[in-house]
TrEMBL record:
Residues 1-377 form the Major facilitator superfamily (MFS) profile domain. It is found in: Cell membrane. It comes from Reyranella humidisoli. Keywords: Cell membrane, Membrane, Transmembrane, Transmembrane helix. The chain crosses the membrane at residues 28-46, 58-77, 83-105, 117-140, 146-167, 196-220, 232-253, 260-282, 288-313, 325-347, 353-373. It is a multi-pass membrane protein. Its main location: membrane. InterPro entries: MFS, MFS_dom, MFS_Efflux_Transporters. This is MFS transporter. It holds the Pfam family MFS_1. It comes from the Bacteria.
Amino acid sequence: MVAAFQVGKAPPALPSIRDDLGATLEQAGWLLSVINLMTALGGMAIALTADRIGHRRLAIFGTLLAGGASLAGAFAPNVDSLLVGRILEGLGFISVVVAVPSLLLRLTRPGDQRLAMAIWSTYMPAGSGIMMVIAAVVLPGTSWRIVWLVAAAAAGLMAAALLLLAVPRRELDPLPVTPRPLLSEMKEVATSGGPLAIALCFGAYACCWFAIIGFLPTLLTERLGYSTSTAAIVTAAVAILNVTGNLGAGWLLHRGVPRVAVIVGACLSMSLCAAGIFVSGVPDLLRLVLAGVYSAVIGVVPGALFTAIPVHAPRPELAGASTGLLMQGSNIGGLLGPPITGALVAAGGWPSAAWLTTGALAVAAAAGLFLHWRERHKLAP
């Protein structure tokens, strides 16, 4: 969650950054998306690096790197320097999120692993949402530089906690691994049907999620007349509601509900809800209600997908690399969703965005069905 602070701090701070540094809209877009780009490009490679140097070491390194880059970014004299800092924050972020799942699996009993991974899946909506609220509260009386300092301080405290509490845990010591060619292991994961289906499903989910969350502030300011800070807080609250679905997935799976029912049921039912946010004829306040319902329910998808990694990894030692592939799929979807939505809205107005949400969730449902087919064959006696 603290790593996700680096993602959530940027959207509310963009107006302050543009006023202070004179950033163009294009530069502002890069400041938002560069973390997604770093994860989309390097998720699996960094995960395999974690397997070699140790997941605990990489988690601590990533936390320190993100905190140091945020601290340096707070004193950036221009946009280019700030962008370099965002690139380093992205490397720190992806280092943490690909390293932690393997550590969690080693700390939990086999019967609790699905629940633990579902709880883990809350890191993005909870972390980024909390930081968006903090930024929206801090910004009116200060500047974006204070927001960067807050994120840096949080990372510093977390690094200290890891050094004090995680380093002494012997069960988290690096495991002996048989060295294999990096490209060979990347190919093994990338050509395995299960991890690919997980990545595709998460990518389609993220494409729809970021399309809605990214444009919700615009809808709130244009249609409901909310102020920028109020729109940021409301959007953060909608994002945090995603946590209820993440935890709900763990509860459902822990009680034996099939993964396919969780994924496909949520995608098909929420495709109508997501479309209602954009189509014509829906009262404006109802759009906000639909956004909240969508965020809360669709959160079961990442919760279900994270729990599928131990089942579908080609080998147990490639669970980290499979997580990296999932993260790449997620961030590719996050990169594609907002610009495609923007193009659709520019061409045909807000109702056109419903085509993206419906199509993306249909792809996620299809990937969930394929994942179920793979799981039945893999677990068959």
